[in-house]
Amino acid sequence: MDLSKILNKDQRKSIMDAMLTPFSWGYGAGVWMRNTAFDLGVLQEQEFEVPVVSVGNITVGGTGKTPHVEYIIEALYRRYHIGVLSRGYKRKTKGFILASENMTPRDIGDEPYQIYHKFGNLITLAVCEKRRKGIRELLRIDPDINLILLDDGFQHRYVKPKVNIVLIDYNRLPFEDRLLPLGTLREPAANMTRRCDMIVVTKCPTDLNAMDIRIVKKSLNNLNLLKYQKVFFSNIQYADPVPVFPVQSPQLASLQWMHDDDAVLCLTGIATPKPLVRYLRQFRANVKVMHFDDHHFFTRRDFTDIFRVYKELEGKRKFIITTEKDAVRIMNNPYYPPTKRNCIYYIPMRVAFLEFADEHNFIDELVDKIEKQSEEPISTNDNEYDY
Question: Do residues 148 and 51 lie in contact, with contact meaning Cβ atoms separated by under 8 Å?
Answer without folding.
Answer: yes
